[in-house]
Design a protein that fits this description.
274 residues; 63% helix; single chain; mainly alpha
């Protein structure tokens, strides 16, 4: 007989309970998690922003125009998202897409908790970044799903998924490091694709970076930390300095405290850890 107190069932109970609360309370539900809601009358604001990019379809080739169009939410991703918005994120399947992402996202966590018996996955799921991602219907959910299935796949499927996710958003290029040394051929092929792709969209990169928000409330990273220190404590620390300190601290902790410990562990799906 299976115990109802297994971690994966506890997680499932948490998800069901929170989902019921969301259905009852709507967007005000997010106040409990201190998640900033852009507009209480509009749900999944980030995804609706992506959806609005279908207006740019006819001017797709004119990068200067489409990245400066301010008639609605500004484009701050590679132009491939315009096709995603035009052909996939249509009104009839908008909520079906949201629901599908939500279900798969939860199933991935259920799988990880069941297989690795770690309560930390529950903490990650309830973290501010995860809750903000769910509240806004953020495309990082799709990125997370694609990377997860890439790491479960082999050969051509793995290469296809990793190349796809890099073309959708640039930062997953760093996940290629996880393919070394076990999947050198995957690393080489995907890196080659990434270089070609970056050269292809090179003229768009400045627009993408300029349009990407870096406020303390609705974005991630050390820029957000720096913004929040100014906003809440009137303390200015350059975000590059914060990044440098975090990198040095990580290296010190690894080499002086954890290197030997990690060396003696046996890993499964170690690229997922990365």
């Amino acid at each position: 007989m299976h115990s109802i107190f297994k971690l994966e069932y506890i997680f499932l109970l948490i998800v069901i309970t929170l989902s019921i609360f969301y259905i009852i309370f709507g967007n005000s539900f997010w106040d409990f998690f201190l998640v900033p809601v852009g507009n209480y009358t509009i749900d999944f604001t980030d995804l609706r922003c992506v959806k609005s990019w279908d207006r740019l379809y006819t001017d797709f080739k004119n990068s200067e125009f489409i990245y400066n169009d301010s008639s609605a939410c500004k484009l701050n991703y590679p132009k491939i998202w315009i096709f995603f918005s035009k052909y996939l994120l249509v009104d009839k399947i908008f909520y079906l897409y949201v629901l599908s992402n939500f279900i798969i996202y939860n199933l991935i966590y259920f799988y990880l908790i069941k297989n690795y018996k770690s309560k930390f996955f529950i903490y990650f799921y309830l973290s501010g970044a995860s809750m903000l991602m769910l509240e806004r219907g953020n495309i990082e959910i799709l990125i997370f799903i694609l990377i997860f299935f890439a790491f479960l796949s082999k050969n051509l499927i793995r290469i296809t998924l990793l190349c796809s996710v890099i073309s959708l958003k640039l930062f997953p290029i760093f996940s290629l490091i996880s393919q070394l040394p076990k999947y050198k051929y995957v690393f080489t092929i995907c890196l080659f694709f990434s270089v070609i792709y970056l050269l292809y969209i090179y003229n768009d990169l400045a627009f993408i970076f300029e349009n990407t928000p870096d406020t303390g409330d609705i974005s991630y990273g050390t820029k957000s930390i720096s913004s929040n220190l100014i906003k809440h404590f009137n303390i200015f620390i350059n975000h590059y300095l914060i990044s440098f300190v975090l990198i040095i601290l990580t290296l010190v902790l690894y080499f002086f405290f954890f290197k030997n410990y990690f060396k003696n562990l046996k890993y499964t799906n170690e690229e997922m850890f990365f």
